[in-house]
Amino acid sequence: MKPLSQTWPDDLAARYKARGYWRGETFPAMLRDRAAEHPDRIALTEGDTNLTYGALNARARSFGAGLLARGYQPGDRVLVQLHNCIEFFTATFGLFAAGLVPVYALPAHRRTEVDHLLRKSEAVAMITKARMDGFDHGALGADLLGDIPALREVILIGGTGDAAGLPDLEGISGDPATLPDDPDPQSVAHVQISGGSTGMSKLIPRTHDDYIYTLRASNEICNVTAASVYGAVLPVAHNFTMSSPGVYGALHAGARVVLFPSPVPDAAFPLIRREGVTITGLVPPLALLWLDSADRSQADLAPLEVLLVGGAKFLPEAARRVTPVLGCTLQQVFGMAEGLVNYTRLDDDPAVITQTQGRPISPDDEILVLDDAGQPVPDGSPGHLLTRGPYTISAYHDEAGANTRSFEDGFYRTGDIVIRHPSGHLTVQGRAGDHINRAGEKISAEEVEDHLLAHPGVFDAVVVSIPDSHLGERIAAFIQLKQGQALRALDIRKFMRTRQVAPFKTPDDIRFVTEFGTTAVGKISRKELRNQLRTAALAEDAAADTPTEAENT
Questions:
Q1: Residue 141 in contact with residue 155, Cβ under 8 Å?
Q2: Is the peptide bond before 245 cis (omega within 30 degrees of 0)?
Q3: Distance in angstroms (rounded) separating the CA atoms of residues 101 and 22
Q4: In Å, what is the CA distance from 490 to each residue of 304, 438, 485?
Q5: What is the CATH number of the domain that holds 465?
Q6: 537 Ramachandran zone, left/alpha/beta (phi>0; psi -120 to 50)
Q7: pTM summary value
Q8: What are phi and psi of 223, to 5 degrees?
Q9: SS3 for 218?
Q10: pLDDT for position 525
Q11: How many helices (H) and strands (E) does the chain have?
Q12: How confident is the model at residue 520 (pLDDT cuts 50, 70, 90)?
């Protein structure tokens, strides 16, 4: 098994400790301390079920001990694919307590992504729910169990049907006295995922010290205290929902987390009022949906004090509507699972809040904005964003090629084009590479192209991003068919479903073309071709004065 690690140069590590960013905190100690301080305070609310800090800590420790009793060893990796439920926290804090390492998958992931994550992380177990959003994850887990030699066990919540023989999380328990000592704060606490530059996701190891620093700092910036009520609207496996300030930030503060079953206004607005939610986070498309619904219904969201919007750029026109329509303060967030997180501050000038995506958490977040030649650009000019700091990784797990491309002299090349203002605030201009930021999901154009090329009727395919006022960016696929083939967009979408990938990777626009341009030597430059097709699509959209939905049937 390849070791998991995340390290910083000795001089930087010493600085981060000396300045109090890294304090030797760990996740098992965090929950244990909060449970000791206020065991009867409610930590989690899911529907009509409330779980106190004391009960959460007890359940998690018992579950972690139960895993050790089943033969798991500290350092083993376990894939966690769960929706917004109390069991997510029982599972993750149980893994932390046992010295095991959670690897997070999203509920929308299907066989292709889950198989990749299991193999890449060398996970020995998987924790999931029997069914989520109508999909049989239990059956998928049982199928993978027979295909991946390293996968010893799939643990379910609510096992039924084909997955009835798999163990249920609720039935696993043990003696907490068997749990190991707290881990090294510099060891890897959990593994998150990033969009793949050449297809599938990369693994991002995060340490206890670096990640808990982001929780503590985010709580201070967002004014999260023990009296706060955080609404987990987006999937809890997203870094945004975990740590900005997120569910883990709220638990670090001793606050209460309310788990939302659905983000749609008809379900979310009554929950905000009933549970007194004071702070929550949305991606721009959901924020627009909430704004439109609240505008029409004159919804009363009086408890809500702060709305964080992140994951993709929030346009100023929409940002200016938040306070008058929803009655709360907008806080923009721009960050990444690799580390750097920026917030507008609650006391920033309104123009700064609506027109920028914030400034970094830490005084020791080093920011470079460079031109294509690698030279610094002046404030106010767009350039490539590079960063390093006390919570930004220095390497992906087991990705030699990606590490060479993404890390330069200790700085992480984010792939974003930004403008830095004299105040230190950043305005995001877009992506530099071939990633598409669709509603906060970073999608590799090459990965989608690979799936399209697997269709027997497709000769070639090029995928590009198109600006979209609702999604931020949408996926546009240009497809060249093999001779004699006649396909519709509907056929392509049906085929994508057979590829067992997350639904959000299916192209929004499908445009059929007869040929692609070539370079001077007769070869297709994928990068240049994507640029040309994107430019042509934008010109077509502008001429039509409406977003083109070619062949959308």
A1: no
A2: yes
A3: 20
A4: 41, 20, 14
A5: 3.30.300.30
A6: alpha
A7: 0.85
A8: 60, 45
A9: helix
A10: 54
A11: 18, 27
A12: very low
Q: Which helix (H) or strand (E) holds 294?
A: helix 284-297
Among left, alpha and beta (phi > 0; psi -120 to 50; other), residue 122 is left
**For the chain, how many structural domains are there in total?**
2
For 42-94, give the DSSP string: EEEEETTEEEEHHHHHHHHHHHHHHHHHTT--TT-EEEEE--SSHHHHHHHHH
Q: Quote the DSSP letter at residue 482.
A: P
Residue 406's nearest CA partner among 437, 439, 432 is 432
Nearest to 213 by CA among 401, 388, 20: 20
One-letter amino acid at 147 equals D
**End of a domain among 138, 156, 182?**
182
Distance of alpha carbon 421 from alpha carbon 282, whole angstroms: 25
Q: Which two tokens stand for residue 67?
A: 């895993």
Contact present, 312 and 473 (Cβ < 8 Å): yes
232 domain residue, yes or no: no
Q: Identify the burial level of 467 via C-beta atoms within 10 angstroms of its C-beta, where 0-12 means exposed, 13-18 middle and 19 or more buried.
A: middle
Q: Is the pLDDT of residue 76 over 90?
A: yes
Structure tokens at 54: 């004391």
DSSP secondary structure code for residue 184 in this structure: P
Residue 37 CB burial class (10 angstroms; 0-12, 13-18, ≥19) = exposed
DSSP 168: B
User: What is the b/e burial string over 227-262, where b = at least 16 CB atoms within 10 angstroms of the residue's CB?
Assistant: ebbbbbbbbbbbbbbbbbbbbbbbbbbbbbbbbbee
- 162, 182, 202: which is the final residue of a domain? 182
25 lies in a domain? Answer: no
pLDDT one-digit tens code per residue, 270-320: 999 999 999 999 998 899 899 999 999 999 999 999 999 998 788 888 899
Q: What are phi and psi of 429, to 5 degrees?
A: -100, -25
